[in-house]
Write a structure and sequence with these properties.
This protein has helices at 2-59, 64-69, 75-90, 95-110, 114-145, 151-212. The chain is mainly alpha-helical. The protein has one domain (2-204).
Length: 213
């Protein structure tokens, strides 16, 4: 009795699985497009800031930190701006903590949609496999009920069922690839903020040393 209910579900559930995978694919593509456009702009600004940091290190010009702090178009510039305000108001104490707090507040925005992409990439193959199993169950159940059905009927049902597995992989592979790509982008941006923080710490030491003299 229970088995009959499972087979009854299998007659419709395999199509439901394909519909779910279609929805997941649309959602995944929308998230990938949004993150690609957002992180492309943020990454370009970070690359520009990294070039300025390299130049500051080569010329030993720690004063460039002040110029970076006046640049609100980049995450690094905004972090430096908050830290500079803190430095002028409260001195060197707490300077590093301001940077760390800024990173903690910005990180969720940088990683927006990435957990969802990770979930889709890891679960879509299993959902597709579920659709294949249900489709194969449906094919063999049809064979058992239709005595005149031959081998071709079973093979046609199995080939149709395998579409769900292919669909699951089709959804999962791009989601996994772009998740890894976006994760590297976020790490690169956060690393750039970290380098600005280190430049700022060096800058504060020079300011403190000049005051002591």
């Amino acid at each position: 009795m229970f088995a009959e209910k499972i087979f009854a579900i299998a007659h419709y559930a395999d199509q439901v699985v394909l519909f779910v995978l279609l929805i997941m694919s649309i959602v995944s593509i929308a998230m990938i497009f949004e993150r690609f456009m957002s992180l492309k702009k943020i990454g370009a600004e970070s690359e520009r800031i990294r070039a300025r940091i390299r130049m500051a290190l080569q010329t030993n010009s720690l004063q460039d930190f002040e110029d970076i702090a006046k640049d609100p178009t980049s995450i690094e510039g905004r972090a430096a701006g908050h830290a500079m305000k803190h430095l002028k108001s409260n001195g060197e104490k707490g300077f590093e903590e301001v940077f760390n707090t800024f990173v903690l507040t910005e990180k969720p925005d940088l990683e927006k949609f990435l957990p969802v992409l990770a979930t889709i990439s890891s679960n879509a193959p299993f959902i597709g496999l579920l659709g294949t199993v249900l489709g194969i169950m449906k094919a063999f159940n049809d064979l058992a009920q239709a005595t005149d059905a031959g081998q071709q009927t079973v093979m046609a049902g199995i080939s149709t069922a395998l579409v769900a597995t292919a669909a699951g992989l089709f959804v999962a592979i791009p989601a996994s690839m772009f998740y890894n790509y976006f994760t590297r982008k976020v790490r690169s941006v956060l690393s750039s903020v970290e380098s600005v923080k280190e430049l700022g710490l060096a800058y504060t030491k020079t300011i403190t040393k000049s005051k002591d003299q």
